[in-house]
Amino acid sequence: MAIYAIHYTYPDDTTELMKVRPEHREWLSGLPGLLVAGMYQPGHDEVSEGEPTAAEPENAALIVYSAESLDEVTTVFDGDPYWAAGLVLRRVVRAWNPPLGPWVADATQSPA
């Protein structure tokens, strides 16, 4: 199994998002590959010299999910009530194979 990071960007007005939230959370809770999920909280956003200055959206979330393939992840997450309702403005799905920490996908890369 591989680990995937899924980044959602939501609209600025979260009125509709909150209406669908219970259904979205129930759906997420039923996913066997779910590792962690949640909206970002207010934080610090800075850029290095020469980097684009567009700010990250304020309403966004990170979902970490375990699956066999990228195709499996996108197929599964097409069933998210937020996605079906058009409340996800952008969805970025990437394989994420961290070499450090408790979620190390490849134990040979772990320093332990």
Detailed description of the structure:
By secondary structure, the protein is of the alpha+beta class. It has a single domain (2-42, 57-98), classed as Alpha-Beta Plaits (2-Layer Sandwich), CATH 3.30.70.1060. It contains three helices and four strands. It has helices spanning 15-29, 70-77, 81-84, and strands spanning 2-9, 34-39, 60-67, 90-95. The chain has a four-stranded antiparallel sheet.
**Shape, principal axes of CA atoms:** globular
Q: Mind summarizing the main beta sheet? A: 4 strands, antiparallel
Strand order across the largest sheet: 2-3-1-4
| Residue share in β-strands | 25-35%
Quick structural overview:
With 112 residues, the protein is an alpha+beta fold. It has one domain: Alpha-Beta Plaits (2-Layer Sandwich), CATH 3.30.70. 24% of the residues lie in helices and 25% in strands.
Write the layout of secondary structure elements.
Blueprint: E1 2-9, H1 15-29, E2 34-39, E3 60-67, H2 70-77, H3 81-84, E4 90-95
Antiparallel strand pairs: 1-3, 1-4, 2-3
What labels would you give this structure?
112 residues; alpha+beta; Alpha-Beta Plaits; 4-stranded antiparallel sheet; 3 helices; 4 strands; 24% helix; globular
